[in-house]
Specification:
Mean pLDDT: 94
Number of strands: 5
Radius of gyration: 18 Å
Strand content: 5-15%
């Protein structure tokens, strides 16, 4: 049986609309404020983790935190089981990204982070029965997300867009709370177009 093919521009519009609607549906609760305050108070570094597409988002958010004045590192859950968990310190804050919150590798990372007395874990997840919720005192709920942009309803697209938006919102809120200046930004991101802009007063 052949699948009915949607006209290309119609599919493009559908994907963009689905992702925009998913972002607009994010429930903005007090957990956001709790997460930002915890990240600002962190005496170590912010460690992000996630597997698959969520892991790629987590890696990007870690990079954004670094460039906006908050030391951060990405911890791959698979590598964590083979020694990389050692990057964690008891002063760190761990942020776990997982739509389902059921990925075994992520849950194991959260479990063993407890054994290292990591100060706090924050979860970013969607499913109400997410296993992440049992490990994280602060949970940012993505809300119910459907991958309605995908013809099969499977490919992570709306969910990863929501994760990215939440991560960016946290990072930029922390940046503002820390009063990071253009000069501070330029010290951390001195190269390329953005580095030049950071050092230029009159844009």
């Amino acid at each position: 049986m052949e699948l009915e093919v949607t006209p290309i521009l119609q599919r493009i519009r559908k994907v963009l609309q689905a992702e925009a609607e998913a972002i607009n549906a994010i429930p903005v609760t007090d957990q956001f404020e709790a997460a930002v305050r915890a990240m600002c108070a962190c005496e170590g570094k912010i460690v992000t983790t996630g597997i698959g597409k969520a892991g790629l988002v987590a890696r990007k958010i870690s990079a954004t935190l670094c460039s906006t004045g908050t030391p951060s590192a990405f911890l791959h859950p698979g590598e964590a089981a083979h020694g990389d968990l050692g990057m964690l310190d008891h002063k760190d804050v761990l942020i776990a990204f997982s739509t389902s919150g059921k990925s075994v590798e992520v849950l194991e990372t959260l479990e063993f982070a407890r054994h290292l007395d990591v100060s706090l874990s924050i979860g970013i997840t969607s499913h109400v029965d997410s296993g992440i919720r049992a490990y994280c005192p602060i949970v940012i709920d993505m809300g119910p997300v459907e991958e309605s942009g995908c013809p099969l309803g499977l490919t992570p697209s709306s969910s990863t867009t929501v994760m990215m938006a939440i991560g960016d919102a946290l990072a930029l809120a922390v940046m503002e709370q820390k009063s990071i200046t253009r000069h501070d930004y330029g010290l951390r991101h001195h190269g390329g177009y953005l580095g030049k802009r950071a050092r230029t007063d009159n844009l």
